[in-house]
Design a protein that fits this description.
single chain, mainly beta, 1 helix, 1% helix, globular
Length: 459
């Protein structure tokens, strides 16, 4: 029989204290790193095997992380700058994509495309062509900003025969999200068409036929913009709501499109913050395009392209490569991080932010701009050896402080792994995973810095 004691502690007794975990390890509540202590997320928040492919900081308090593990799509949300987190998830088909509204509401669309149909014209010597993959099945979910679960699944286009002739030319499409509906770009009998799904099982909404154009099936900015590539540039329109007609196109000033522009835009933004979606275009001289609900910009950035793009609503961090200054023969290239303002003015770093390992290894870098410079995390792996390091610039990205170790070791069962790096206007949040004691499982932990990356502790 269990007995609940209501009495206080005796004078010479102390209440149980949370044990301090060993280096690179964690308890159910905290993790100890070499830069500070982090707090655990709920055990059921999300598996640590999820890789957060999109990290979106919406405003001063809210952010959304989106990822997938096998056939399960996950969204992890915070509404208090990383102090607490909630998650939603759903079993999805091969094609699945999240839509995120400015208030943190979510939509999820998933489906199956049937095999491409060969169009064989009549006549000897005629060349067959491929038609776009028809949608064989499509479902949709919705979650309000404070909801703890997804509403759905429901048929994207209910009714027998509703999917006949509906295709997605690029193979996948990302939904835009309004207060009254989820909107998705498709084609109906080869005509660009905006299809809609009501948020909570309301009455069906009539689709809108659009003019013939190379429309990008991914919304950019918040509120969402519909992009098309034409006349050597990128054109912007408001993403149409139910019942609206297609608005007048406005070109992005300064940017000239090429044969790869449409495909690169269709891959989606490389970084999202506030109302902005940013896309870095590859090439000998890369460009960055930024699009928000009321602003569009384009400027050249240092090349060649080498890695991820970090962003806030005021600046970018561009990863590129330089010759290793510690290599006497200058045969090795190492990563460089360049901070650029949205006016196109970029810093001139005097040295790389990290001293990379000399042995062959795999590495990844994630970065975000700060008010005075930037913060970055480097993850390196070589066999059983691993390391997680923090780089920082407080001088506008022109110089870097000596990198700090978050954790490192050579034990495959005592590994701190990167999850996400978020830049709120007045806080940085670092999400990592760690082994929970000797339990055989791992958990997510969050650390925060309220002084631009100098000190880290519980959020």
């Amino acid at each position: 029989m269990a007995i609940l004691s209501l009495g206080g502690c005796k004078k010479d007794e102390r209440p149980d204290e949370t044990p301090v975990p060993q280096r690179n390890m964690a308890t159910l509540d905290i993790v100890t790193t070499e830069i500070g202590t982090g707090l655990a997320l709920r055990a059921d928040a999300a598996p640590t095997s999820v890789r957060w492919e999109r990290v979106i900081v919406l405003d001063a308090d809210r952010a959304v992380l989106l990822g997938r593990e096998n056939d399960q799509a996950w969204a992890l949300r915070t509404n208090d700058r990383g102090r607490t987190w909630t998650s939603v998830s759903a079993l999805v088909k091969p094609w699945a994509s999240w839509g995120v509204a400015g208030n943190g509401a979510l939509s999820l669309v998933s489906g199956v495309s049937t095999a491409a149909v060969a169009n064989v014209p009549k006549g000897r010597g005629a060349t067959p062509s491929k038609l776009a993959n028809p949608i064989g099945e499509a479902t949709v979910w919705y979650s309000g900003p404070m909801d703890r679960q997804l509403d759905g699944p429901r048929a994207l286009l209910p009714g027998e025969g509703a999917l006949v002739g509906v295709t997605i030319p690029t193979g996948a499409s990302t939904p835009a999200l309004y207060d009254e509906a989820i909107a998705l770009l498709a084609e109906k009998n080869r005509v660009p068409t905006m299809v809609f799904a009501p948020l909570s099982g309301g009455a069906p909404i009539e689709p809108i036929s659009l003019e013939k154009a190379a429309f990008v099936p991914v919304p950019y900015g918040r509120p969402p913009k519909l992009l098309s590539v034409a006349k050597g540039t990128i054109e912007l329109r408001n993403w149409p709501r139910p019942g609206e007609t297609l608005g007048v196109a406005t070109p992005i000033p300064g940017y000239r499109s090429d044969a790869t522009t449409f495909a690169q835009l269709s891959d989606g933004p490389g970084c999202e913050a506030g109302g902005f979606s940013f896309r870095r275009f590859s090439g000998v001289q890369p460009w960055v395009v930024g699009i928000s609900g009321d602003r569009a910009l384009a400027f050249k950035v240092p090349g060649p392209e080498a890695g991820r793009l970090g962003c806030s609503d005021a600046a970018l961090v561009v990863e590129t490569t330089v010759l290793d200054p510690s290599d006497a023969e200058k045969r090795r290239k190492v990563p460089q991080l360049v901070r650029c303002g949205l006016d196109g003015t970029c810093a001139q770093p005097k040295a790389p932010p990290f001293a990379v390992w000399t042995e062959k290894h795999d590495r990844d870098i994630w970065s975000v701009p700060t008010k005075g410079g930037l913060v970055a995390v480097l993850r390196a792996r070589s066999g059983s050896r691993w390391g997680l390091y923090l780089g920082q610039s407080t001088e506008g990205g022109n110089t870097f402080e000596l990198p700090r170790t978050i954790g490192e070791g050579a034990d495959t069962r005592r590994v701190l792994d990167f999850g996400a790096l978020l830049r709120f206007p007045d806080r940085l949040v670092l999400l990592i995973s760690a082994d929970v004691g000797t339990t055989g499982r791992r958990g997510w932990y969050a650390l925060a810095s309220d002084d631009e990356g100098n000190n880290w502790g519980p959020p």
